[in-house]
Amino acid sequence: xxxxxxxxxxxxxxxxxxxxxxxxxxxxxxxxxxxxxxxxxxxxxxxxxxxxxxxxxxxxxxxxxxxxxxxxxxxxxxxxxxxxxxxxxxxxxxxxxxxxxxxxxxxxxxxxxxxxxxxxxxxxxxxxxxxxxxxxxxxxxxxxxxxxxxxxxxxxxxxxxxxxxxxxxxxxxxxxxxxxxxxxxxxxxxxxxxxxxxxxxxxxxxxxxxxxxxxxxxxxxxxxxxxxxxxxxxxxxxxxxxxxxxxxxxxxxxxxxxxxxxxxxxxxxxxxxxxxxxxxxxxxxxxxxxxxxxxxxxxxxxxxxxxxxxxxxxxxxxxxxxxxxxxxxxxxxxxxxxxxxxxxxxxxxx
Amino acid sequence: xxxxxxxxxxxxxxxxxxxxxxxxxxxxxxxxxxxxxxxxxxxxxxxxxxxxxxxxxxxxxxxxxxxxxxxxxxxxxxxxxxxxxxxxxxxxxxxxxxxxxxxxxxxxxxxxxxxxxxxxxxxxxxxxxxxxxxxxxxxxxxxxxxxxxxxxxxxxxxxxxxxxxxxxxxxxxxxxxxxxxxxxxxxxxxxxxxxxxxxxxxxxxxxxxxxxxxxxxxxxxxxxxxxxxxxxxxxxxxxxxxxxxxxxxxxxxxxxxxxxxxxxxxxxxxxxxxxxxxxxxxxxxxxxxxxxxxxxxxxxxxxxxxxxxxxxxxxxxxxxxxxxxxxxxxxxxxxxxxxxxxxxxxxxxxxxxxxxxxxxxxxxxxxxxxxxxxxxxxxxxxxxxxx
Lengths: 350, 387
Hints:
The complex is a heterodimer of chains A (350) and B (387).
Chain A: E1 3-10, E2 14-17, H1 18-25, H2 29-36, E3 40-43, H3 50-63, E4 72-78, H4 89-96, E5 104-108, H5 114-127, E6 133-141, E7 156-164, E8 170-182, E9 185-186, E10 195-196, H6 202-221, E11 230-233, H7 239-248, H8 252-255, H9 261-264, H10 271-282, E12 288-292, E13 297-307, H11 324-328, E14 332-333, H12 336-342
Parallel strand pairs in A: 2-14, 4-5, 4-6, 11-12
Antiparallel strand pairs in A: 1-7, 1-8, 2-3, 6-7, 8-13, 9-10, 12-13
Helix pairs in contact in A: 1-2, 3-4, 6-7
Chain B: E1 4-11, H1 22-37, E2 46-50, H2 54-57, H3 63-70, E3 79-83, H4 89-102, E4 109-115, H5 122-130, H6 145-159, H7 164-178, H8 192-196, E5 200-202, E6 205-206, E7 216-224, H9 225-228, E8 236-245, H10 260-273, E9 282-284, H11 290-299, H12 308-313, H13 330-334, H14 338-354, E10 367-374, E11 379-386
Parallel strand pairs in B: 2-3, 2-4, 9-10
Antiparallel strand pairs in B: 1-7, 1-8, 4-7, 5-6, 8-11, 10-11
């Protein structure tokens, strides 16, 4: 059965509080916190980018399970902030984990769901027998323009999921997608920050697509919200995943383990995958997980996942890499000036 | 001058209608109005359409021709005219249609209003709306509509005993009414606390003091009263049509807390109808901001200048009060597609006078008034309708 062989996450240690950003722009922090349900967001260090975060996440995944990296036949990195417009992040990751040279690789972009699209690609390659293992990564140092609503949540982090068919810690029984051409959020070549349609990103974007993919999956599997132990949804803020969970019939307890956005912020391509990692961190054999990502533009990938005995077997060691909760512990808070420096928002004299 | 009646009304649901284009909206409203009147397109002599800023919102001008075309009436070469007076465009469209029928030049005339506001972002929308004020003396120095109405509210509250809670009650009441109107943008009731805890937009106005950005269209069909019964058993007479102007910039006014154009249009309307404020059973006023409803009730002569807050708080303007104000939910809760608002007000009054307003029906309503404002009060249209 095709599924998750191992997984890992990475989150930079720096954080900025929403009230610090609000202070700079003269906004009311209570309005922002109340409106988004987010208190802080992660900030990359000065030398961290999508590639380094992807490498860290991949290494954390490989720490948990003894895998011969040369048997990883595909590496796909989904991101909105690949360091190069031309030159794949995936090659850097492949080299860093010693999966090169007999592998295929590519960078993916589908706003916040490129990482889950990579999972689907790897599932297909594994199921067809083309590769033994495929590594799917969602990683971002998310961009949000100064003073834009996005700046309060755009965070940094990533997760890596190794897909294979040999003794997975979680089986992915089924996946399906719901995709349309919906321009709710975009960034053109050369632009530093994405633009978005404000409230248009909600109903016609996030909700239509996540509900579409989720209902389609439940229709195909014949399962309902009550058949799942946990659920994970893309989390651009805390309000959206809670609302979509309620609309679909999932309880607050089902989404609680994976809802990391209040302290982490929105890690774009990392968002739903870090939520899945946080859920796997505490899952037991037999637990079932429903996951639906969302990418603006727009689409959603939904997954029907079942945790196996392997997650507690000798071949897998969850504690060999930090849990998402551990990655979120002990943050170093920065002020806006340090944040601006870390994010390269301060233009240096040439 | 001939007597004129409304023989058909139609209104789209109001809201963020991302799935409907400008032309979808007006075709929908027009079709509803023609069906309601039981007439066919060939019977229409002329059309007027209120629209504030399609040029800015959807980069389309020449709206009269567009509407004639997409209504299927272009090949009949119907007379179709766009009317623009910022947020009062709908009210003036209705008045132009009334004049056309009353004068005897046309028999069956459609008055419509449409605005598609969500194809641009909020910033572009706010800037387009700022064109309703004086661009050189207000817009260029940073004044926005919430800012201008906040100045009115500040001045008003300094001079008259209006409390913050009384002002909030305007929004609470209008959301209550909107929750009973199937076409309203907002279907949820709110509390005073909802208003007071919402984001500050322009002190003292908070988010829930402000009308929203809305897509929507409305249309009505007018006919000479003597022909009206051929089409409907429930014609609603247009008892008065009045319009007035004032300085476009707020700072040039005699008194910024009194909309003199409202006072003038109101007086003309009462005079034309031969009625006084106590004869009005219900009124749709232009509550683009909560303070605007307070001013409107007073400036139309329904109470003394300083009393509207108290009367609102006491429930006099509520659905079951002595003078129900904004039974549709007003601009605040029903929504404010600027060019369509004046026509939607007429639709609401006609529904009420026909006894077809459902859960928000005012018992025994026989005479209603509409009050539509452009900008901060530089254009005002007031109409009185009765059965």
